[in-house]
Amino acid sequence: MSSPSITFYDIAQRPPVEKTCCSPNPWKTRLALNFKGLPYSTTWVPLPDIQKVRTSLQVRPCRKFADGTEFFTLPIIHDPATDSLIGDSFDIAVHLQKTYPNSGAGDLFPPQTLDYVFKNDYLLVPLSECRDSEYPEYAKFNLNVDAAFSAHVQLTVQGFPFDPATAETSKAEFVRRAGGMVARWEDFGLAGEARAKMMDSFRDMLGDLGKLFERDTSGPFLLGTRASYADMIVGAWLRNMCVTLPENEWEQVRNWHGGLFGRLYDALEVYAEVK
């Protein structure tokens, strides 16, 4: 008997949503679902409706802002095989591995050392906590990669593909999340010398991260020719950058450090189908 289809909740951007979906954490889930070869369908949720949908499903937020208010975001999956509702991308990957250990391309969490650390004092969006996990190397890596890319997210904000039907509401929400750092949407803009400086910082960050990928030169993944969830963590952020950066800057990113991250992006394409 075939497995019942999983419902995957992702954030709807500007139509066509299959081309503009760019939220990193949902992309981690999509890559993992496709890696596992599991039947699923995507339910697209407009950004202003996320809190309503998450509340209606009775899936509590797993993150909070610095002021203690809850951060309502996606992904969520409903897996009818276990009647599970899970609302954190890392927890979803763990669930998929434990529930379907031999499905698709195999193990999402093969043993490896992921000794990458990134420190930043302030981020606009709260990160998932590094909770106790049976995959502690991956949990720490997830937190540090999220921090590293989030520290450079201002490069992408002006290119965010908002749905015109909800754009103004969504922009106002981004300003609210900034906690007084900006007064209006346009203040997120980054140009000229300031943008060049952040691009330099982004390149340097990717250089440090890239050292892990250079340990095994047999393929584009951290384990050479074998993909793992750690590659998907990075790949999900690259999917975000591909959509939100100006095209010329995305081409720079693809080609930095000998094209390492361009090759990773391309190699994960096999798991990037939007269903």
TrEMBL record:
Classification via Gene3D superfamilies: 1.20.1050.10, Glutaredoxin
Domain Glutathione S-transferase UstS-like C-terminal: 182-271
Domain GST N-terminal residues, every copy: 23-98
Entries under InterPro entries matching the protein: Glutathione-S-Trfase_C_sf, Glutathione_S-Trfase_N, GST_UstS-like_C, Thioredoxin-like_sf
Protein name: GST N-terminal domain-containing protein
